[in-house]
Amino acid sequence: MAGEWILNTIVRGIALGTPLLWAALGEVYAERSGVVNLGVEGMMVLGAFAAFALAQASGLPYLGLLLAAGVGALAALLHAFVVITLRANQYVSGLALTMLGLGLSALLGRRWEGLPLLNTLPEISPLTYGGLLLAGMLWLVLYHTRWGIILRSTGESPAAVDTMGLNVFLVRYLAVVFGGALAGVGGGLLSVAYRPSWTEGMTVGLGWIAIAITIFASWDPLRAATGAFLFGALFHLSFRLQTWVAPEPLQMMPFAVTILVLAVVTRRGGAQGVPEALGIPYTRGES
Amino acid sequence: MRVLRALLVVVVILTFAASGGAQAKLKVGFIYVGPIGDYGWTHAHDQGRKIAEKQLPIETLYVESVPEAQVEPFIDKLIQQGARVVLTTSFGFMDGTLAMAKRYPNIIFGHASGFKRNHNMFTYMADFYQVYYLNGLMAGALTRSGKVGYVGAFPIPEVKRHMGAFALGVRAVNPRATVHVRWLFSWFDPAKAKEATEALIAEGVDVFAFTEDSPTVVQVASKRNLPSFGHYSPMQRFAPRHVVSGQLVHWERIYIDFLSKVLAGRYTAENLQNVDYWWLLAEKAVELGGDFGVPVNPVWIPKLQAVKVQTREFGQISVYDLVNRRLAQMSRTPVAFDPFTGPIRDRKGRLVVPAGKTMTVAELTTMEWAAPGIVGPWPKEP
Questions:
Q1: Shortest Cα distance, chain B CAs vs residue A238, angstroms
Q2: A239 → closest Cβ in B182, B214, B233
Q3: Which tens digit of pLDDT belongs to each residue from B309-347?
Q4: What's the CA gap between B184 and B376, in Å, rounded?
Q5: pLDDT tens for residues A198-246?
Q6: Which 8-state DSSP code applies to residue B331?
Q7: What is the dihedral of CA A98, A103, A108, A114, to 10 degrees?
Q8: Residue among A279, A55, A95, A203 at smallest CA distance from B190
Q9: A7/B contact by beta carbon, under 8 A
Q10: What mean pLDDT is predicted for residues A156-165?
Q11: Contact across the interface for B199 and A204, Cβ inside 8 Å
């Protein structure tokens, strides 16, 4: 009985955690470069729509996910241009991207409402294992390679990176676009695997949860994976436990416990805090 | 510059022309709580709006995804855009709509699913409780574990009434069955609906009904080969072999009736104090089925015919026949059968509907008690 409970909760945690993980990993890299992107929800919902539409038309969910990555990257490129090249406020641009994504996908998606999807991915798919592998690889790259040092330095002290003769703008562009591609995949996983259908606004705030996980995981890919799966499991449990616990306080439980656990893990691990230059546009010759 | 000025003149002329033309037509504004693509409540209202616009000499405006607490400025905006009739379609819009009705005594207001009225504000509802009872009969026949699941949006009277009718139906066929409830506290949240369904499956539930504006519950159940009942929109297409039936709505029936009476001058901003549409099966405002014109999915008819129950009215009868008999009784005017006819005790054993009595509309719209057989949390349980 207890074994069945634990197993079931783990499976559910992985199922909902997978799309969250992809989106959170993307945001970890974007923010490590010093760029906040609050457009995760928007990029995810665009990815969800793109993946569903193509998977529906072609019968190939992986092809749909590929398009979702492309669409997410493209949306992120827009954000990158606005905040890196034009030096606009990152928070405003990200929020605009979220609204744009929600609106655009709703508008374009009308025709796909109410359509079933015949070829779907299982909830726990190669993308789940791929996501975990990716988390490990991104952690290795971040902490144990020259690229990782460059990425982290760009988020901490872009002027120093610039002085070394490296291109701050290029690093940030790449990180933001990479992040967008992963957010697109995360959204796509929602519409071709987790809940195979298209409904406008179907990301229902999961993009914001991915951002929260990024922050509470201290911008660490492995901790982000922990946070994503933990949140998924607790989210499921909050419904499982309704037989015994009043539903109102249970609503908060997945958020509260995830934050608490990640806070404790971070304290023990002694990770660095927020990237110093996070949210600040870089201008050559200043600071 | 000259081009720009010329363009501006054209725009101004067009604007006036458009508003001039519109004055001939009655402008009706709709306020929706969700996105029109939600495939549920808002989607259904929007379908009704479109049909009404096609059939009547009216022009419609709408705003979607309006937060319940912010309905007033949105109503203001619709009136500024020329709306003479404003219809708000969520229970949570009730007080805001009433406040605006008092502020604009010459505008006609309508509120769906509430109970507060004014001389210029009527109420309307296409209610499902009869249809839920029929679905309950079928769910009671189909459960093997004796555990039927219900994923509920908010614990408000409307949802409680529907679950109550559903549970009464389940128990009428299967007196030992229980109805297990999970609350989402959202009208639209596929992720919550999905995990709530998974939680019920983990507890042995094998038949599902729900109130949430997406086909999620249907999809999750069908993946496990379990039957379910669609909600609000035609959901049989999402699980052609697993959706047994469900409830469908025809808001256009109410919209066309009311707006034609406004156009004919019978309803004005002066005489709506007692206008309440409470339209059910008999008025064809609601329909039984997982798809229009399909009351019971043919795949499931043999299974429902195989289950026999003993009833006082019809003797030994199959559940399929019972559903059809009850449907016919409730589609008549006046109705020959109402699920909320006493004696009914709530799950705590308290007598809530005395023998021989049928619940009134006022009682139904404020119902808080849990029907027998319901298992799970029940906020505000008396």
A1: 9
A2: B182
A3: 999 999 999 999 999 999 999 999 999 999 999 999 999
A4: 13
A5: 998 999 999 999 999 999 899 999 999 999 999 999 999 999 999 888 8
A6: H
A7: 100
A8: A203
A9: no
A10: 92
A11: no
CA nearest neighbour of B209 among B189, B188, B232, B191: B232
Query: Phi then psi for B266, rounded to 5 degrees?
Result: -75, -35
Q: What is the ipTM of this complex?
A: 0.91
| Residue appearing with tokens 């195989």 | B306
Give residue ranges of B with CB < 8 Å to any A CB. 35, 37-39, 43, 65, 180-183, 185-186, 188-192, 194-196, 198-199, 202-203, 214-216, 219-220, 233-234, 237-238, 375-377, 379
Predicted TM-score (pTM) of this structure: 0.89
Chain A residues with CB-CB distance to B182 below 8 A: 239, 242, 247
Closest CA of chain B from A108, distance in Å: 11
Alpha helices in chain B (DSSP H): 2-22, 41-55, 71-80, 94-103, 129-142, 157-173, 190-202, 216-223, 251-263, 301-306, 319-331, 361-365
CB contacts under 8 A, A 131-170 vs B, are none
* Residue that is written with structure tokens 């404790």 in the block: A264
DSSP string, A229-261: HHHHHHHHHHHHGGGTS-HHHHHHHHHHHHHHH
Of A110, A199, A247, Cβ closest to residue B190: A199
Instruction: Provide CB contacts within 8 A for A180, sequence distance 6+.
Output: A26, A30, A37, A39, A43, A72, A73, A74, A75, A76, A77, A79
- B37, pLDDT greater than 80: no
Nearest to B195 among A106, A109, A235 (CB): A235
| Encoded amino acid at B79, one letter | I
> Do the beta carbons of residue A227 and residue A100 sit within 8 Å?
no
Mutate to test the interface with A, among B194, B213, B238 (most CBs of A within 10 A): B194
Identify the helix (H) or strand (E) that includes residue B344: strand B344-345
Band of pLDDT at residue A283, cut at 50, 70 and 90:
confident
Distance from CA of A40 to the nearest CA of B (A): 17
Rounded to the nearest angstrom, the minimum Cα separation between B196 and chain A is 5
Q: Which residues of A touch B188 (CB under 8 A)?
A: 199, 201, 204
Nearest by Cα to A189 from A39, A10, A15: A15
Asked whether the beta carbons of B330 and B284 are under 8 A apart, the reply is no
**pLDDT reading at A48 higher than 50:** yes
Query: Which tokens hold the place of A171?
Result: 């690093």
